[in-house]
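User: Can you write out an input/output pair for a complex, sequences first and structure second?

Assistant: Here is one pair. Inputs:
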Amino acid sequence: MEFAELIKTPRVDGVVLHRPFMPTVEGTLCLTGHHLILSSRQDNTEELWLLHANIDSIEKRFVGSLGTIIVKCKDLRVIQLDIPGMEECLNIASSIEALSTLDSVSLMYPFFYRPLFEVIEDGWQLFVPEEAFKDLESMTDEWRLSEVNKDFSVCPSYPSLLTVPKDIDDESLCKAASFRHGGRFPVLSYYHKKNGMVMMRAAQPLTGTNGRRCKEDEKLINATLCAGKRGYIIDTRTIAVAQQAKARGGGFEQEANYPQWRRIHKAIERSNVLQEGLIKLVEACNDQSHSMDRWLSKLEASNWQSNVKEILTTACLAAQCIDREGASVLVHGTEGTDSTLQVTSLAQIILDPACRTIRGFEALIEREWLQAGHPFQQRCAQSAYSNGKPRSEAPVFLLFLDCVWQILRQFPCSFQFNENFLIMLFEHAYASQFGTFLGNSVAERLKLLLSQKTVSLWSWVNRPQELERFLNPLYEPNNLVIWPSVAPQSLLLWEGVFLRWNRSTKCLDEAYQEMVHIIEYNKELQNKVNSLRRQLAQLETEDGPLQTP
Amino acid sequence: MEHIRMPKVENVWLVDRSSSRRTQVGTLYLTATHTIFVGKGSEDRNELWVLHSLVCNVVKHKASQSGYPLLIHCKNFQVIQFIFPQESDCHDVYISLSRLSRPEKYEELYCFSFNPNVGKAEREHSWDFLDLKAEYSQMGLPNKLWHVSPINREYRVCDTYPADLFVPKSVTLPVIVGSSKFRSRGRFPTLSYYCKENHATICRSSQPLSGFSARCLEDEQMLQAIMKSNPESRFMYVVDTRPKLNAMANRAAGKGYENEDNYCNIKFQFIGIENIHVMRNSQQKLIEVSALRSPSMGEFLTGLENSDWLRHIKSIMEAGLFISKAVAEEGVSVLVHCSDGWDRTAQVCSVASVLLDPYYRTLKGLMVLFEKDWVSFGHRFSHRCGHLIGEAKEVSPVIDQFLECIWQLMEQFPCAFEYNEKFLISIHNHIYSCHYGNFICNSQKERKDLCIKEKTHSIWPHLWENKLDFMNPLFKPDQSQNQGLLRPSTAPYCFKYWRRLYNRFDRELHPRQSELDSLMTVKEETQQLEEELALYEQKMAVLDKEHAKTLYMQKGVLDSKQALWSLPLDTSLANTPQDYISGFIGGAPNVFTLQQGERESAEVCLYGDKTKSSDADNSDQESGVADFSSHSSGEESLPSEESVKDPDSDETGPNRA
């Protein structure tokens, strides 16, 4: 096996592990193809099993012959390993570096992972476009499922099946695709049952500097409007950025060509800027200087909270247009694979109660992120401790989860899942034993044979044993549209992710446990009372005849 | 009342600053104690009552087309905007309110006219609700080392101290008198907290009049006696809560701090908490930030940082932590002082007490702490809260900071407190409202002279009666870590902006569903279920015995079909979108901003029909053009059918269940 070549020293004894808020552990360090393992071989001490894929970067230090490796993980944890012997330390460090930056996807752990549980419900088969379309069909007959992209030639980042207006034929779709960045022509993202309005998403139109137009594209999106109605195009970029895009062949919809549409520009940052923000934010959170001034100005300088606010605001606006204005909406930015998906998926959480259940949220991630072609592999290649030159990594998905968390904080009873569910998704998007977040598109995933060769995250999460941890005890289905506040006073730092390793959570965990206990005790009493009441009622009816003379 | 120029004005607009949709017209009444606005129309009459004593200031704004705006800023951070059709009305109300909100004599305060329907005996009884003597004896005092000294019975030694004070038994009267002469305003070292387990104490005083070289034998003996009253320890800490520079500057005025060379076995320590003037300015900046309409995230965070408010809270917390650790972990007594020993000293001693003793994390305990460390020890409530017209420079949010320290602790230790956030906010409100007599005057002596106990009511029984509202459902008194010392983290990110206090009246900014309220409802229901269960079990037992000959089913407390607690969702709010275009939902109504010309507002409104527009906004929204491209400026108002029936109350309880 080729991993062996990369592992120069497979095991070292007498290694000391330091983790925040945990006692230090001394033990044997082992490197395997996919894991860094530290075991003390004693009972009652937790072992460390760390996926190489979770390692973002490492630092080495030497004091005499004692080497220290600081391991910085993609889940933002920082751990320290004291390794006796300089050579061992250097070997371990270079092995970790090599193993954590494997280029080939097929060498990743999900291809080697064998589940220790029985897969009852295969997550790969759980969310297929045909099923989603059946739901849509029960509500409206205005749409059809097109196979125009079945060999991924029209749009490589789209799935093979796409929902489009019934009256638009595949030929028109191809023409519209040639007018949109990356072939991402407008497709249905969400149908609002309440009033029949829709949300579509696409990539930017390729108008270029000379104002190119495409009749098929215009026809395609106009087909989604009711007679006499107008719609909104939400461009996630500022007008200035959209203007600049023209020079590179991109652009935005001209009023003259789209008279039935009003364009709104918002200011969601490009992905490379978001990555810088994440690095700065995590740096600020890890700053040990304990000076108040530096904390707040660093938090501000990271722009992270501003990004959260802007994304949420845009999503709320889209939802508002649909629900309150009774208008259809088209969302796009540049490529239509990042900010566009943040907006369309968040708008659905606001509008559609189904998306606030566990299954519904999983389906949303499948639909609006995985099948919609968010390049997870590229975006999550590195996290906050990446020190190399950034390529295309960006915390687009993490920002989305942060926004969901903000809504969850404001509507703590409206979600079936809890914060742990969101944190779990963050972790698995960056490093996982499951294949769900591998690849950048449906086409890539098919090529990698993920559904045959790896286990789906959903197969694991949806097991009742696992699900229990992710259930929100306060959940009460709420069929209303939920409008969050986007004021800076209302938006919080997501401590569960960003301060997770910097503070003891003992007291907060206990508070959560207490909350669970309060609610479970209530349910238990409820059941007891109900069954007693039934028994009494039964006795009463049995004795009833005795009472009548 | 001679100050009311205009008892009633009709057709006044009450502007909801967060949403133009909820602006309403009505009648304004001025009474001797309240400003009352009664909304016109709809069957559920909207009333807004504002106590004059809560009014911080009244400002007339530039006239606009819709009328003459008047802004009322309250001490509980409520901001109310009225618009008058007539300039003369606006002016009259302005003049009247300016006077009414600045009483010159104590007798003008609301607590002297507040007359709930209770008998004399009951009122007097309300003042016996808390008994400090009993509280000290709960603490373990007096004992063989500490006793109550009668020396200040007539307030002759120190007129800002209470009559009863605990001092070491070994200290003679001349030593106390000598020590008091060597301390600012006679505030000699006396006991604030005694730790039964290890005999360590927290004592408090004012600064010594040491100047550059003066010393006082009696004061040195006093400290020696305090140290020796903790038999196990070989030294004591003297904590000066001021920044070193301030303390040094005081030496030039003949005041200063203890010289370690003159006092046996003391460890002297500065903890730099800033003075009342710095704190006042800091809070002013914080209030400005909290009241920003549609700030960007950058503006908000920068404003928060520039206010320095959280830095001050952190320094107070750190001081409290230092002292509580000295007492609990080292078993060493601490003497705390600042300049006069009634601001920073009170803050730090009471924060340390909350950290040290679980009792102060209970409802009753916190009340006691207020009475003991603040009221009895002469925190100058009248000056600091500006109850009467007087020195603006004496006003300072010292007590706000203490309340906020507790709130910050609650965030870190959700199970450690019996009370919840609403309790703190309610106390805050009452400190400023002058509704009850507890927080009137600057010292016990003044209160006695004014016959506060004879003429006013005490707040504590009132809060106690409503204690169900103030209970923390997560409180777990038996939890091991809630027993002893709380050790909060003082990392900067642990200090958060207290939205519920500073944006208390901006309903839109708070979570639409409240975890707290839901859990309280569940707990309440659980209690009912327990009762019902007991009843049924009893019946079953009876039935078993009598073979159920006759049975009268009593109706259950709960319908069996109701499986869970009622949905605690504020439907109207959840279902109301906000201002997502200019960012902040709380944009002032379009019409006023435009006319006041406060900002160049683009015409931003979604086109389409506008539901029910009021007469006030008539000019600006017929445009069919939605210009969302300018996301930076401008206000917008989206029509919403919910707006009309949205209830508006002056009190923002978090969402009702």
